[in-house]
Amino acid sequence: MGNWGRRKSFLLIFFYIIIISVLVPWPIESCHLVDKTALLDFKRKATSDPSNLLQTWTLTTDCCKSWEGIACDSNGRVVNVSRPGLSSGDDFIIDTSISGTLSPSLANLSFLELLDLSNLKDLSGPIPLEFGKLSRLSYLFLDTNKLSGSIPVTFKNLYQLKKLYLSDNTLSGTIPSSIFEGSLSLSQLGLSANQFSGPIPSSIGNLLSLTKLDMSLNKFSGSIPESIGRLKNLAYVDLSENQLSGRIPNSIGNLSQVVLMYLNQNQLKGKIPSSISGLSSLVFCRLSENQLSGSIPPSIGNLPKIQRLIFENNKLSGKLTATLGHLVTLTDMFFSNNFFTGKIPSSFGNLQNLQTLDLSRNKLSGEIPHQLVKLESLQTLDLSFNPLGLSRIPNWFKKLKVFRLILAKTGIKGKLPSWLASLSLSTLDLSNNALTGKLPTWIGNMTSLSFLNLSNNAFHSPIPDEFRNLSLLMDLDLHSNKFSGNLREFFSKNFQDPLGRYNSVNLAYNMFNGPLDENIGNEPVMASIVSLSLSHNPLTGYIPKSLGNLTILQEIKLAENGLTGGIPTELGNAKELKTILVSNNNLGGAIPAEVLNLKDLQEFDVSGNRLSGRIPPHKANIPKSAFLGNHGLCGAPLPPCKHT
Predict the structure, then answer these.
(1) 186 pLDDT more than 90
(2) What is the three-class DSSP state of 489?
(3) What is the sign, positive or negative, of the torsion defined by CA atoms of 308, 375, 419, 498?
(4) How far is the C-alpha of 353 from the C-alpha of 589, rounded, in Å?
(5) 595: which residues sit within 8 A by CB, 6+ positions away?
(6) What residue stretches are annotated with the Leucine-rich repeat-containing N-terminal plant-type domain (predicted)?
(7) pLDDT confidence band for 9 (50 / 70 / 90)
(8) DSSP labels, 3-45
(9) How many other C-beta atoms lie within 10 A of the C-beta of residue 23?
(10) Which of 179, 169, 82, 79 is nearest to 132 (CA)?
(11) How far apart are CA 95 and CA 97, in angstroms?
């Protein structure tokens, strides 16, 4: 609708109200006629209002006295319009929506100070340019809708604006530099989860009153402007999940009031500036998923309030500075997947509040400092995938109170130490080492385990009966060992409802034998399983029909076993299946159409069997190679069947 169309609509409502007021006598109302007309025009543009948020907005009532969500000043001018889709009280929560567009006539509310149309979910279309006329507006909340287009350049005229939230829409384009030149009162700016692009304007440094800045989840590019260091009142800054590049500006150290700083998931390069020591209020710092390089500056040890450092997934290198041990308030250190070298500093033993120490996937070497035994608050210790050359788990580890111990590929050899049973571990990952021997019977005493990974070792022999005592175990990975015997202990283990039902089981590349129990899919412990991998074992017998009862199973791998019989039609009842791998067995018969036409099927391989008949028509994109080696199969994607 053009400007004339909008003006015509507004005038029609305006004159209708005047005519009604002349013909129908009613008490003089305090609501100003212009304001009432503007609000009714917004209501008229609402195409759906399922919870009747605007029900009280009627022509015959006083907008200042009777309309919900409206507040007026003493002169009958509307100063507050508040109709959010999400609100709560002492004993209720309202979560609703309104469909429609933002009426430009709302700009006629010339005394408006607060406009809250947030969380209405379905407001669409652009933000009207006319909103720039709301010169008294202090609070504008339009977040969590479906608004599109760009931020009106007229917003530069909103000199009184203190809080602006446009997050969670589909707004796009660049941010006009002029917007930040006049909004000197702005204290909170929320632009997250849109499609904004281009650079962050350097004029953002003019927002000297800003305490909260959230521009995350957009497509902003270019460097973080040096002018950000002028925002001395900033307490919260989130620029994560954009396409920002360049270095972290040295001026960042001027932000002495910042409590939370998230710059993760960008393309930032260079070193962490030594000026980081100036962030004296910093509690949460996340720089992960960038391309930061060089060593961590020793000045980082001067952060007096820091609790969480997340630097994982970068290219940081060099030795871990001993000054990290000065951060006695630190609760979480996530430094995984970098290029750190040398020893773990003994000063880490001073981190009395540390709960998580994750140094995995680096190049750390040498002895683990025994001073870590002093970390009485430590819950998670992950040193995996470092060339530590441990040979054995240090005995002093038995004094730790950790719940999660992850030492994959750290050079551990020999048998499992029996003192592991004395720890209350929920997660134990010793995969990719050189552990040998039998799985000890005392494994059944580790009744707190929910995650156990001993894969890629050299364990042998059957699983002990005591394994069934692991009643909280939900994720099990023993693949690539030399375990033998049948699988009965795994699928008849105890559980503590609702815990202890399997989520994933990987027993591939072992020497388990015998048939699969025909009732495996009916076992209560299997009811929640998502992934089952038994490939590369000398199993025999049929694929159990009961596997079709596993209603949330997504992945089943039974390749390179000795299975016979057919592919059960019942497998098509497992409606969530995405992956079915049964290649290189001795399966015969036809491929059931119910299985090949599972709606989520992505990966399917029956090659190297004795299947026959026409391949059922199917929508999934299955390559020809997935059917090869079955001389009796025909039909797309194999050659067509011959008619007899």
Answers:
(1) yes
(2) helix
(3) negative
(4) 62
(5) 567, 569, 571, 572, 580
(6) 35-73
(7) low
(8) HHHHHHHHHHHHHHHHHHHHHS--PPPSS-HHHHHHHHHHHHT
(9) 7
(10) 179
(11) 7
**265 alpha carbon, distance to own chain's centre:** 12
Q: What is residue 17's predicted lDDT score, i.e. its pLDDT? A: 46
- The structure tokens listed for 137 are 């507006």
- What confidence score (pLDDT) does residue 26 get? 42
Residue type, 535: S
Six-digit token pair at 399? 């004094």
pLDDT at 298: 98
Could you tell me if 404 and 383 are in contact, meaning their C-beta atoms sit under 8 angstroms apart?
A: no
**Which residues on neighbouring strands pair with residue 483, listed in sequence order?**
461
Per-residue pLDDT tens digits for 523-539: 999 999 999 999 999 99
With H, G, I as helix, E, B as strand and everything else as coil, classify residue 615.
Answer: coil
| Cα-trace Rg, the chain | 32
Distance of CA 310 to the CA centre of its chain: 15
Token pair, residue 121, equals 């979910």
Q: Mean pLDDT score of the chain, rounded to an integer?
A: 94
Cα–Cα distance, 54 to 40 (Å, whole number)? 9
pLDDT of residue 24 exceeding 60: no
HSE (side-chain half, CA atoms, 13 Å) at 45: 21
Is the N-terminal amide bond of 637 cis, ω within 30° of 0? yes
Question: Per-residue DSSP letters for 415-453?
Answer: SPPGGGGGS--SEEE--SSEEEEEPPGGGGG-TT-SEEE
- The per-residue pLDDT for range 60-104, each reduced to its tens digit, is 999 999 999 999 999 999 999 999 999 887 777 889 999 999 999
| Among 274, 277, 249, 281, CA closest to 263 | 249
State yes or no: pLDDT of 615 exceeds 50: yes
Q: What is the pLDDT of residues 529-579, one digit of tens each?
A: 999 999 999 999 999 999 999 999 999 999 999 999 999 999 999 999 999
Tokens read off for 348: 């880490």
CB burial class (10 A; 0-12, 13-18, 19+) of residue 126?
Answer: middle
Query: Is-cis flag, bond preceding 515, omega within 30?
Result: no
Q: Give me the helices (H) in 518-626, please.
A: 593-596
The rounded distance, in Å, linking the Cα atoms of 573 and 594 is 8
**Helices (H) and strands (E) in the chain — how many of each?**
5, 48
The pLDDT, as a whole number, for residue 92 is 73
pLDDT at 181: 87
Which spans in 450-511 are helix H?
488-491
* Mean pLDDT computed over 384-410: 97
Say whether 180 sits in a helix, a strand or coil. Answer: helix
Q: Which of 256, 296, 255 is nearest to 273 (CA)?
A: 296
0.85 exceeded by the pTM?
yes
Query: What pLDDT score was predicted for residue 73?
Result: 96
Can you tell me the distance from the alpha carbon of 377 to that of 354, in angstroms, rounded to the nearest whole number? 6
Which residue shows structure tokens 């072992």? 510
